[in-house]
TrEMBL record:
Keywords: Carbohydrate metabolism, Cobalt, Isomerase, Manganese, Metal-binding, Zinc. This is Ribulose-phosphate 3-epimerase. Transmembrane segments: none annotated. The keyword Manganese applies. The lineage of its organism: Bacteria, Bacillati, Bacillota, Bacilli, Bacillales.
Length: 215
């Protein structure tokens, strides 16, 4: 069964702790944190002190998505927090192979991110070492956007490569995930589904998480 990752960017920052508890009680598997620097994407989210507070409060693993320039600079800090998953954009570094192995050397699972316009071919040369691939089904930088359907084809392509080459990387999807789009992603081969606004606006997040996993 797929895992559901609430995106904390969609939470009420004034009630972050209680929102986290609500999602944990609803059956969330992993928390997803979007780190934006205002340079790689046109927005700023939260910094290291907030992430440290989240890490101390969380009872489930953390998945950190670096939407930043120079992602290399943050690896040790997130490792020290106990982050389990750390991903970066292929466009943000000239040394993707080295960064992947560095993330892994710090005890984390390393992920590489594909923007909607970035083809799978751009990461073919690291699929044999990466732990997961994050497929963006919206343009990164803002929450609440609509699902871009071409992302399903990309999930299918990654799943076919995974099978044909006998690889074991996970496929994560972020952007516009609800019960309908979640089903399309599951059927295409996704393992991890990030949900933000749809999940946090739900009056029954436990049922919503079940629907994303199974409906």
């Amino acid at each position: 069964m797929v895992k559901v990752l609430p995106s904390l960017l969609a939470s009420d920052f004034l009630k972050l702790g209680s929102d986290m508890k609500r999602m944990e009680e609803a059956g969330a598997d992993i928390f997803h944190l979007d780190i934006m620097d205002g340079q790689f994407v046109p927005n700023i989210s939260y910094g290291i002190p907030v992430c440290e507070a989240i890490a101390k409060k969380s009872n489930i693993p953390l998945d950190v998505h670096l939407m930043t320039e120079d992602p290399e600079q943050f690896v040790e800090e997130f490792a020290a927090m106990g982050v389990e998953y750390l991903s970066f954009h292929i466009e943000a570094t000239s040394h993707a192979h080295r960064l992947i192995t560095h993330i892994q050397s710090q005890g984390m699972k390393a992920g590489i991110v594909l923007n909607p316009s970035t083809p799978v071919e751009a990461i073919n040369y690291v699929l044999d070492i990466v732990d997961f691939v994050l497929v963006m089904t919206v343009n990164p930088g803002f929450g609440g956007q609509s699902f871009i359907m071409s992302g399903v084809d990309k999930i299918n392509e990654l799943d076919e490569l995974r099978r044909s080459k006998n690889l074991d990387f996970l496929i994560e999807v972020d952007g516009g995930v609800n019960e309908e789009t979640g089903k399309l992603c599951r059927e295409a081969g996704a393992d991890l589904l990030v949900s933000g606004s749809f999940l946090f606006k739900s009056e029954d997040p436990k049922q919503t998480i079940m629907d994303i996993k199974e409906k």
